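Dear colleague,

Thank you for sharing your sequence with our group. We've completed the structure prediction you requested, and as agreed, I am returning the results in plain text so they can be pasted directly into your records. Please verify that the sequence below matches your submission; if there's any discrepancy, let me know and we will rerun it promptly.
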Amino acid sequence: MKRLVSGLLSIIILLLTSCFSMTNTVRSDYFQSGIKQTFDDFENTKYIHLTIAAHDLSLLMERSIRFTKTINRGNEGYSIKTHLYAASWFFLETIKFNIDGTIFEYKSSDNSRDVLNGGYVEELNYFAIDSDLLNALNIGNNITIRLYGKNSYMDIKLGENEKNLFKEYFTQVSHP
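Please find the predicted structure tokens below.
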């Protein structure tokens, strides 16, 4: 009997560990702050990403904001992708940046929402932005990002680490 219980416990632990590592791998790209460059050989496209991760245990939520510069055959564009992983829906619609008192506002151009394992939900939102926002983020001192959902909002106040990441990112996107 002891061997049966021990065997079942081992199987359960193995399954839980596998599930955790799979979901952690899928989401880890979004929930670790940093700068990353990728290149798509097929499309001949270079991407420069800056991810700002903001975890909030009180809301049982993980959230990130990814800034991307896309360079394809001489054409350049900027975008933001937000990723929310939470216990309940937020229905993100708008993102605003308050940079030293100047407001930049962007509406979501595309949304993806899904229910994941364990009852958690995932929301992905896409925003087209311009270089004016990046310039302001590069020189800004007091930066707050506000995510507006259907019935509420949440603020993300950027600290020195995030501001330093923006400065490094700005250097990379200015001289790719």
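Summary note from our side: The two ends are 64 Å apart (CA to CA).

Kind regards,
the structure core
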